[in-house]
Protein backbone atom coordinates (compact mmCIF):
# COMPACT_ATOMS: atom_id res chain seq x y z
CA UNK A 1 0.00 0.00 0.00
CA UNK A 2 2.79 2.45 0.90
CA UNK A 3 4.45 1.91 -2.50
CA UNK A 4 1.19 2.67 -4.33
CA UNK A 5 0.66 5.88 -2.37
CA UNK A 6 4.29 6.90 -2.96
CA UNK A 7 3.89 6.38 -6.72
CA UNK A 8 0.71 8.48 -6.73
CA UNK A 9 2.37 11.24 -4.71
CA UNK A 10 5.20 11.31 -7.25
CA UNK A 11 2.79 11.58 -10.16
CA UNK A 12 0.56 14.21 -8.53
CA UNK A 13 3.22 16.34 -6.83
CA UNK A 14 6.35 16.06 -8.91
CA UNK A 15 6.06 18.37 -11.88
CA UNK A 16 9.79 18.13 -12.65
CA UNK A 17 11.23 14.63 -12.92
CA UNK A 18 14.64 15.22 -11.40
CA UNK A 19 16.38 15.12 -8.04
CA UNK A 20 14.88 18.57 -7.38
CA UNK A 21 11.33 17.31 -8.06
CA UNK A 22 11.84 14.24 -5.90
CA UNK A 23 13.15 16.32 -3.00
CA UNK A 24 10.16 18.67 -3.24
CA UNK A 25 7.86 15.61 -3.19
CA UNK A 26 9.70 14.30 -0.12
CA UNK A 27 9.21 17.63 1.67
CA UNK A 28 5.48 17.40 0.89
CA UNK A 29 5.34 13.80 2.14
CA UNK A 30 7.34 14.60 5.27
CA UNK A 31 5.04 17.46 6.19
CA UNK A 32 1.91 15.39 5.58
CA UNK A 33 3.01 12.12 7.20
CA UNK A 34 5.89 12.92 9.54
CA UNK A 35 7.68 9.75 8.47
CA UNK A 36 11.41 9.66 9.32
CA UNK A 37 12.41 8.30 5.89
CA UNK A 38 10.80 11.32 4.26
CA UNK A 39 12.63 13.65 6.64
CA UNK A 40 15.98 12.01 5.87
CA UNK A 41 15.38 12.32 2.13
CA UNK A 42 14.25 15.93 2.53
CA UNK A 43 17.35 16.94 4.44
CA UNK A 44 20.02 14.88 2.66
CA UNK A 45 18.59 14.77 -0.89
CA UNK A 46 19.65 18.37 -1.61
CA UNK A 47 23.29 17.34 -1.18
CA UNK A 48 23.06 15.85 -4.69
CA UNK A 49 21.76 19.10 -6.19
CA UNK A 50 23.63 22.08 -7.56
CA UNK A 51 23.80 25.29 -5.54
CA UNK A 52 21.24 26.99 -7.81
CA UNK A 53 18.84 24.05 -7.37
CA UNK A 54 19.32 24.23 -3.60
CA UNK A 55 18.51 27.93 -3.65
CA UNK A 56 15.40 27.28 -5.76
CA UNK A 57 14.40 24.57 -3.28
CA UNK A 58 14.64 27.05 -0.40
CA UNK A 59 12.92 29.88 -2.30
CA UNK A 60 10.16 27.94 -4.03
CA UNK A 61 10.06 24.21 -3.25
CA UNK A 62 9.96 24.20 0.55
CA UNK A 63 7.49 27.11 0.91
CA UNK A 64 5.23 25.42 -1.64
CA UNK A 65 5.46 22.09 0.21
CA UNK A 66 4.53 23.76 3.51
CA UNK A 67 1.50 25.48 1.98
CA UNK A 68 0.37 22.53 -0.16
CA UNK A 69 0.72 19.97 2.62
CA UNK A 70 -1.63 21.96 4.84
CA UNK A 71 -4.16 22.81 2.12
CA UNK A 72 -4.36 19.49 0.27
CA UNK A 73 -6.33 16.47 1.41
CA UNK A 74 -4.23 13.93 3.35
CA UNK A 75 -2.66 11.79 0.62
CA UNK A 76 -2.83 8.51 2.53
CA UNK A 77 -6.66 8.81 2.58
CA UNK A 78 -7.10 9.14 -1.19
CA UNK A 79 -8.39 5.97 -2.86
CA UNK A 80 -6.29 6.34 -6.01
CA UNK A 81 -7.71 3.31 -7.78
CA UNK A 82 -11.01 5.17 -8.13
CA UNK A 83 -9.28 7.97 -10.02
CA UNK A 84 -7.28 6.07 -12.66
CA UNK A 85 -9.55 7.25 -15.47
CA UNK A 86 -9.47 10.86 -14.26
CA UNK A 87 -7.04 13.44 -15.60
CA UNK A 88 -4.22 14.57 -13.30
CA UNK A 89 -5.45 18.16 -13.33
CA UNK A 90 -8.91 17.02 -12.24
CA UNK A 91 -7.46 14.81 -9.49
CA UNK A 92 -5.23 17.62 -8.24
CA UNK A 93 -8.25 19.93 -8.12
CA UNK A 94 -10.35 17.36 -6.29
CA UNK A 95 -7.75 16.91 -3.53
CA UNK A 96 -6.84 20.60 -3.38
CA UNK A 97 -3.31 20.44 -4.71
CA UNK A 98 -1.79 23.33 -6.65
CA UNK A 99 1.49 22.78 -8.50
CA UNK A 100 4.45 24.97 -7.53
CA UNK A 101 5.56 27.82 -9.77
CA UNK A 102 9.13 26.84 -10.45
CA UNK A 103 10.19 29.86 -12.46
Structure notes:
The protein has 103 residues and is mostly helical. It contains 5 helices and no strands. It has helices spanning 2-13, 19-33, 36-44, 51-71, 88-95. Helix 2 runs antiparallel to helix 3. It is globular.
Low-confidence stretches: none
Q: Helices and strands: which structural class? A: mainly alpha
Shape: globular
Cα-based radius of gyration, to the nearest Å = 13 Å
Number of H/I helices? 5
Helix content: 55-70%
Compile the SSE list and pairings:
Blueprint lengths: L1 H12 L5 H15 L2 H9 L6 H21 L16 H8 L8
Quick tags:
0% strand, 103 residues, 63% helix, globular, mainly alpha
Summary?
By secondary structure, the chain is mainly α.
